């Protein structure tokens, strides 16, 4: 029987205000107000060929991202070749261990997804990860204190996906061999697929006002 497990990363804790200590593994770790993060780095907005990463469905992934953002009155993102390239490098690193660990960078937001399978997976598509991240909307409550009320629910992939102040995204995907041991003790070779998407400016700024301004209620399906 084929075995398949899909798992998004546990979203990094939301960065607290500057007066609160930040865990070393937190990613992203903004301490600025929404919209004041660093501007786009090289490649931001260059979406001519949707290059940089290896997602064969990069256009579909971008279209899905922007369709979900439109539901929440967030403007469309542009594809960043540099973000896609760095996402690709990180996806290849994570796939080797099949262990999702956030990079901890201060420069961008980051969503991760892994799928461990047997037999080996050959599907490099990325759009299904976008869909999985958006499904977290079902756990999100649009209250007046949204960060306080929602973060423990593990909805950080959704909130980064639709974060209004974000303007660019780039994604990468990698597949590596992953041994699988059956209950009988027999060892078989499966695979681990990892999808990484990075966002600028980063979302999930750790305050209720930031979440109120950047994660808006759904206006259409």
From TrEMBL:
Region described as Disordered: 1-45
Gene3D superfamilies in UniProt: CAP (3.40.33.10)
Domain of life: Eukaryota
Residue span(s) of domain SCP: 56-207
InterPro entries: Allrgn_V5/Tpx1_CS, CAP_dom, CAP_sf, CRISP-related, SCP_GAPR1-like, V5_allergen-like
Protein name: SCP domain-containing protein
PROSITE patterns attached to this UniProt entry: CRISP_1 (PS01009), CRISP_2 (PS01010)
Tagged with keyword Electron transport: no
Keywords linked to the UniProt accession: Pathogenesis-related protein, Plant defense
Annotated source species: Gonium pectorale
Entry GO terms, CC: extracellular region
Compositional bias annotation for Pro residues: 9-19
Described function: Probably involved in the defense reaction of plants against pathogens.
């Amino acid at each position: 029987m084929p075995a398949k497990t899909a798992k998004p990363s546990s979203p990094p804790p939301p960065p607290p205000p500057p007066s609160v200590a930040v865990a070393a593994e937190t990613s992203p770790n903004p301490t600025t107000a929404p919209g004041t993060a660093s501007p786009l780095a090289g490649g931001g907005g260059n979406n001519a060929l949707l290059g940089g990463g290896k997602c064969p469905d990069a256009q579909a992934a971008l279209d899905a991202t922007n369709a979900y953002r439109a539901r929440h009155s967030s403007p469309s993102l542009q594809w960043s070749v540099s973000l896609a390239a760095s996402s690709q490098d990180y996806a290849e690193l994570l796939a080797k261990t099949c262990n999702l660990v956030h990079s901890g960078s201060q420069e961008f937001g980051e969503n991760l997804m892994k799928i461990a399978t047997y037999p080996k997976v050959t599907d490099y598509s990325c759009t299904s990860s976008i869909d999985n991240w958006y499904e977290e909307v079902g756990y999100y409550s649009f209250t007046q204190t949204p960060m306080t009320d929602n973060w423990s629910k593990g909805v950080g992939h959704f909130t980064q996906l639709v974060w209004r102040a974000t303007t660019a995204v780039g994604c990468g995907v990698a597949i590596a061999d992953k041994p699988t041991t059956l209950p009988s003790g027999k060892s078989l070779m499966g695979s681990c697929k990892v999808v990484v998407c990075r966002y600028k400016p980063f979302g999930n700024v750790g305050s209720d006002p930031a979440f109120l301004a950047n994660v808006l209620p759904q206006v259409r399906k």
